[in-house]
Amino acid sequence: MLIVADENIPLLDAFFEDIGQIRRVSGRDMTADDVRNADILLVRSVTRVDEALLEGSGVKFVGTATIGTDHVDREYLASREVTFCCAPGCNANSVVEYVLSVLSLWAERTDQTHWTGRSVGIVGAGNVGGALWRTLVKLGFDIKVCDPFRESEETDSNLFVDLEEALACDVVSIHTPLTHDGEHPTFQMIDATRLAGMNAGQLLINSSRGEIIDETALRERLQQPDAPTVALDVWENEPDISPETLALTWLATPHVAGYSLEGKVQGTEMIYQALCRFLGLPARKRSGQFLPEPALAKIAFTSSAQASEASSTAIRACYDPRRDDARLRNMMATVSAERGREFDRLRRDYPVRREFSSVKIQLKGTSRSLQDVFKGLGFKLKL
Known about the structure:
Blueprint: E1 2-6, H1 12-16, E2 21-25, H2 32-35, E3 40-43, H3 51-54, E4 61-64, H4 74-79, E5 83-85, H5 92-109, E6 119-123, H6 127-139, E7 142-146, H7 148-153, H8 163-167, E8 171-174, H9 192-196, E9 203-206, H10 215-222, E10 229-232, H11 243-248, E11 251-252, H12 261-279, E12 298-301, H13 307-318, H14 321-334, H15 339-348, E13 360-363, H16 368-377, E14 380-382
Parallel strand pairs: 1-2, 1-3, 3-4, 4-5, 6-7, 6-8, 8-9, 9-10, 10-11, 12-13, 13-14
């Protein structure tokens, strides 16, 4: 059995070597010739899976180790009776921690003593947005959620607001899939009109899909007075992102919000389990078997620690997005040709990043409120 897989899927051998022969290829450059003799196809979000890729192949199972599925023509797979699976929620916690890190940096930038004192509009409350919602509520943020699909399913519709009300919050964090049709399409949902309604006191974060924001309108708005602060992890036309947009963006990262080791390995585990079910095999392997000891294992705070400063210190010790920002800007400044390949290289060679749960926080004589903050963030506690 031949398994063709994106070379950036972690732990391919550990999970799949007992199932079949593995052929690694570049996900961005994958062609029909690469998969022609494949039985199983494993991808990430950079590979467009459609008739052009699969026509003439013997692929019977497609798995994407990602939350998103807009890169897969699911109707075509169904018409060919190809089994499909994705990894919903695999890296949701990683994206939540990315947003928390951005919020921490923005609070410092705007001289906020209590970083939870601002309102946050969450646009899209699926796996990622829902996880962010739950975390921010625990931390005491004022939350407004816009998700017309979730709203129609919930018994208490008062939990939700319309998009304009969400966009009026101090912070707006986008977590919707990319859709072009239907009742609520998200393609260029944040357009010139909606960007004009935002101001310099607001922060706009996009870690879902680049095309949800009209980048041309965004560039124009960011060159105007009273423009909002913007943090982008996703971009139009990836991997060939706009240097002009990058230059105008406060915080810029190369589509790595969900790139914690835990998130990536969980995505691999989820498609492994689905493949085992498809083949009728026992799923004996778990991601916990393969996670190494974290480089940072423990942080200690004493009774003199202040909640806001201590939480920011711990968050950034685990993940400081300014490092990814620097890598991306340095690449764009020094590479004139093949920037797209270099963008992908930043993702391929991404350093190991562990989630908050891998770190134990030792608290000596600290207040109950500080303990609650670290619990809300997802750290392990040692009292």
